[in-house]
Amino acid sequence: MTGIMTGRSPILQLRNLTKTFGSFAAVNSIDLDIAEGEFFTIVGPSGSGKTTLLRMLTGMEFASSGDILLRGERINDLPANKRPTCMVFQSLALFPHRTVGQNIEFSMKIKGIDPARRKARALELMAQLRLPENYYAKNVTKCSGGERQRVALARALAYEPDILFFDEPLSAIDYKLRKTLEKELKDIHRETGKTFIYITHSLEEAMVMSDRIGVMRAGRLVQVGTPQEIYTAPKTKFVSEFIGDVNIIAVSVNGSGVTAPTLGVGLKSPPAPAGFAAGHLVVRPESLRFLEHAGEADNALSGRVYNEYVLGSRIQYQVRVGEQVFIVEKLRQQAFAGKLDDNVLIGWDAKDSILVTD
Amino acid sequence: MSILSRLLPPGRRHALPLILFMAVGFAAPLFAVIAYSFVPARTFDLWADWSFDNYLEVFNSTSYIAFGWSLGLAAATVLILALVCYPVAFGLARVFGKWATLITLLFTLPLFVSENVRLYGWIMVFIKNGVLLGTLKSLFGWEPDSIVFTPELTLLGMVYVYLPFMLFPMTLGVSMVPQQTRDAAYDLGASRWQVFREVDLPLSMPGIVIGFLLTFVLAVGAIAEAKVLGGQRIIPIANDIEVAFTYAQNWPLGSALAVLLMLLVGFLVLIVLRRFDLDTILGRR
To answer: What's the whole-model pTM score?
Structure first.
């Protein structure tokens, strides 16, 4: 079974969940347990099937085979309007002809809750999401991007869902506001204690917010783990490449170490798992160091500094070793003392590298 | 710098040709009709003694029957078209997919044929021993009464003729409703009917209102349907106006009728626009 969070009961369980369109499997036999109160993010490039998966979970699309269990109950055939779950859409999908208050109260109106209680709850949610009280009668189309996000979230929370789904609601927002909203969303998650299932193509976004991350590729869930695990122990080249810059060396196992045919050298690596014959050695840019002597690290390569990129608190160097380009990242205080085109030795320890399959 | 450019800001200066064109081509005839409605009956001198005599004559005549027929038929046409067109518009915007273009074309095709020819086509269908009744007679020996020259067939003709004018604005309106907004309402617990009432209907209202206004204004002025299909059994107000301007050579009376019709329709349109402010519906204000 793929990673149950210890100590917490699963709220949502997916068993062999599959969705086919003709002969094409958009979502291919997914098994997953999501714990009560968890912030789980599904990450994948466009076309990986994450949106189809989400549409099945919300009840807007029906599974071709497999099961969706909510607290142990099979909800496969329950349509979206009967499921105790709610989604925040990519476009937010607010009702443009209604006020902020009417938007938030929509589900309560459908349930037949009386206007006074509706309004009280709406104002409560607005306060929680830091929306000014006088926005109650404001038309949603007049709200700013960040305010609209909050209205959409308040509208979803007003439904009192067991699980809240998010379909990349932050993707169309500029960088600075997105960073603020990511943190806000994580705060809201803490305050409400609800289960959040989030979908994004940005692993960086997923890292900031999630308890656990599931990486999707071509309809399959290729790895599930905490942000730490995904970052430090990716199982495949695909997962390792998904976040930021990474150095990848094609290798084949040779005795206790590995050989890199493209570099023409043997390298020290973590012990290869049984049955692992060939794959890639992954080294994060921050694990690479500039060396004085080859003996200072388990592995050393000589190359030439080709360029440098200042990223604010960190600086990246492009070092060319033969045909291959390596990215070395240093904190600003530990900047490389030499200049461009200098010949340098770069190196890393075996424990800082990861062997991954293709 | 010419005097013109000094007197007028660039915007108004460039609008001048169009303003002149509209003044001569649109406003002038309208004002002529209004002016004629005040001159003595059966005269053609615009500067004769102005009075309300023509209006008094209209009010003392039985013209209200013609007004009633026109407004009633137009209202019935709009109502029937709304019910007929909404499902079709919904289909065109959401269901038919690649067939929508072909179906749209089929709905447009009749517009290329003269209205009178199409109306006479209906006569061929419904007349005694015609396409419909003739077939029924020869196949089943059943001979129901023909509905040719009845108000019902007039109404059918109007519904048929004005269908595209309701359908296309409505289709545009329906296609303006974002799918995600409908999904969101559904996801928040609304039933299909509630999604329709709370999201589809209000958000497609601009298209629906434009369709209503367009067909109503056109249908109030309808004349050929009553002449051809109604067989002059009922006289719409447009017919009275035509008669006044042609056979009767009573331009002032015709003008008075025309002005009254304009006022009536204008008043109704204003009420509708007040009730459904298009900008508010679209969320622009």
So the answer is: 0.81
